[in-house]
From TrEMBL:
Protein name: DNA repair protein RadA
Pfam families, per the entry: ATPase
GO terms, biological process: recombinational repair
RecA family profile domain span: 1-59
Organism superkingdom: Bacteria
Coiled coil location: none
Keywords: DNA damage, DNA repair, DNA-binding
Amino acid sequence: MVPGSAILIGGNPGAGKSTLLLQTLCKLAEGMKTLYVTGEESLQQVAMRAIVSGCQRPT
């Protein structure tokens, strides 16, 4: 990954794209700002997925 670049993740439905992205962002968020953009999930769905994944909400 190149700092400052945009990264596109693609794959078939159910391949684990959202899970991979959320887990990666949770780790990256420990040291930098991150952004999760989705057109398919609600805020509540993303929040629940983050909680289940063990991702801590920033304070």
